[in-house]
Amino acid sequence: xxxxxxxxxxxxxxxxxxxxxxxxxxxxxxxxxxxxxxxxxxxxxxxxxxxxxxxxxxxxxxxxxxxxxxxxxxxxxxxxxxxxxxxxxxxxxxxxxxxxxxxxxxxxxxxxxxxxxxxxxxxxxxxxxxxxxxxxxxxxxxxxxxxxxxxxxxxxxxxxxxxxxxxxxxxxxxxxxxxxxxxxxxxxxxxxxxxxxxxxxxxxxxxxxxxxxxxxxxxxxxxxxxxxxxxxxxxxxxxxxxxxxxxxxxxxxxxxxxxxxxxxxxxxxxxxxxxxxxxxxxxxxxxxxxxxxxxxxxxxxxxxxxxxxxxxxxxxxxxxxxxxxxxxxxxxxxxxxxxxxxxxxxxxxxxxxxxxxxxxxxxxxxxxxxxxxxxxxxxxxxxxxxxxxxxxxxxxxxxxxxxxxxxxxxxxxxxxxxxxxxxxxxxxxxxxxxxxxxxxxxxxxxxxxxxxxxxxxxxxxxxxxxxxxxxxxxxxxxxxxxxxxxxxxxxxxxxxxxxxxxxxxxxxxxxxxxxxxxxxxxxxxxxxxxxxxxxxxxxxxxxxxxxxxxxxxxxxxxxxxxxxxxxxxxxxxxxxxxxxxxxxxxxxxxxxxxxxxxxxxxxxxxxxxxxxxxxxxxxxxxxxxxxxxxxxxxxxxxxxxxxxxxxxxxxxxxxxxxxxxxxxxxxxxxxxxxxxxxxxxxxxxxxxxxxxxxxxxxxxxxxxxxxxxxxxxxxxxxxxxxxxxxxxxxxxxxxxxxxxxxxxxxxxxxxxxxxxxxxxxxxxxxxxxxxxxxxxxxxxx
Amino acid sequence: xxxxxxxxxxxxxxxxxxxxxxxxxxxxxxxxxxxxxxxxxxxxxxxxxxxxxxxxxxxxxxxxxxxxxxxxxxxxxxxxxxxxxxxxxxxxxxxxxxxxxxxxx
Lengths: 781, 105
Known about the structure:
By secondary structure, chain A is mainly alpha-helical. Chain A has 2 domains: 123-359, no CATH class; 364-780, no CATH class. Chain A has 26 helices and 5 strands. Chain A has a two-stranded antiparallel sheet with strand order 4-5. By secondary structure, chain B is an alpha+beta fold. Chain B has 2 helices and 5 strands, in the order αβββαββ. Chain B has a 5-stranded antiparallel beta sheet with strand order 4-3-2-1-5, with no helix packed on it. β2 (78-80) of chain A pairs antiparallel with β2 of chain B, so a sheet runs across the interface.
């Protein structure tokens, strides 16, 4: 809505003098009586509608009486709206305060920087401006608002304001212009580039806001009521670019150095391809053809950047004063060209990678692995890339996603998911019992529908950056916990039908609960591992958190063991009945379960080993323990376990149990005498080393089974790297444990002496083989 | 004016549209939310209006030959603002079209 336009229309409709004539009160010269319409913040891509003119307002001058009345108030007395709170008032911008009021002018200061947008430009200056625009565009992509980036361009401002009705009107000047002042070739080129750039922004905003979930904190979609050519189709922008390229290539209008000319053309070509790649309606059949040409255009831009000449006057901080803005004035965001360029490159390669999702096997587990790998990319994909991937992903909905996930985990070649179940029709007589298979189909439908939202939430979380992924999973597991509860009821019904059909031996007990619980446990593991990756936990909490992780994966492991047994039973049963094709399918399915099983036992063993390692370090006092005068261990434990407190079954250790496990020898400051006996003995270390060995073997098995078995075939490279990283962590832990053990041998006189010999360093994220597996480095002093 | 009377009179304008002219020749139009002894006024959903620079006005007058030629003020949404009493030059009350606001001026 054109809420902040008091364009000529309004002004001519209501000349100020008429207002005065109507009410006879003090005239309000020049101020159009347009009632403010509170519409800022609404999606700005809405259709522009003209609202019916409001009835004419009458204006009364109340200055004198108001002044008198307010001076009669007591000190500290407020006359206010009863719902208006102090908290709200803090957010008010103070007018005439230079720090708060973006419209404030210093004495003698002009509202705008004088910049003649139709003054001729040199080709080198054009390159300078184009590259600077690119820097601002990328700064915007990384989360800064348009007002501090692209909207500081006086050229873009001229194109967008006053709002043009047609593309023809979007010029660097408005109204008639003498022929000798008409913009030359360079300005026309700049105009075509700017138009396409603005359209790119429009596409980006539409794509990001089109997702179910996005955060303004990552990306600012505010357009300050400027309309970014939302209504205009993409091809007109491409035609403008084509025309510009043609005129440059023609070369008769202006003498330009060929290298400079080629540099400009490269930028225009890039913009053209980039615009097509961002197009909201780009064809899915050729989706893999959009990004490669964009990427091919990048290098010529980078190598010719130095040809450009900066034009500082083309950008002005003061444009903010004219933008609808409820925030204080903020400085322009300066991003170096090299940084901007690497962001751009990242955006393009992430786009190219995201497109690969279309070529994956249509299997939700493959998609899940892809999402996970995409979120793990370094550097973290930009918000646009994530929205781009999710848009592609959620278009694919021909397969019922929870259904095929269910099939992979708990229903190998099962009667329950036999498609013919859905083909049966209910008996004509409603009093007659429905066929068993139809009842199965209904129960599964009921569950799949119920699971839909939880599944969508899970994927939405996977589509976020890693930090938010961890936080969102904390909420997602609550939904899955509820789902698990509900699954129990459906399972009861399902088992009853199965019992009536006499096929109990073909179905794993409580299949839906098993499936839901497995997913939930997987998420809890990821939450804890992401917590380590993001340094949420302090080193003295590592022992407890890894212990918790091991208990979660122990449960997952047990669950998977029953599933695998079921797969084996099914296979032998099928072989008995000579259903060899089905038996083969079950066996293939069992690969996935085996891979999961090994992974779970690897996580269990490695985290157990790490827990033991860190407990030892705590007793040796090689890990700093900050003094925390205002909390108790129990409260801290409760805080860490907060996301898991409400889960059923209970996943966390009761506090006394936890204490018993991480403090086996009493307080770290005053351990009992058995500690040193044990530390010098074999058995203590044999335990830890046994776990490391177990973990190493388990992950080696996972690796051997391969990405395909883990249903990560589409991201084999990333998956392999992740597994390799964990394996390397196992090896590193073995080395460090040996180091501690040696140090204990030297420390004849107790932990004090050990501390004089060795120190422990906790590696930062870059220094780890795998983000979630923190292996402290033991070094000699 | 007595305190009670003043409070009652001012309270009438809470939630009503005011236009506040500031010392730097801008005008803020919005809903009054709060005021105090120093005549500081908080406006919600406010717009800022600003006259065009002098040379633009002069040009408009010259071009049309009409000394009261209309010119376009620029306006923008600024949301919740507090206008300090010291910078207020004029306060206007904007009555809605029906004229039945029941406010005692």
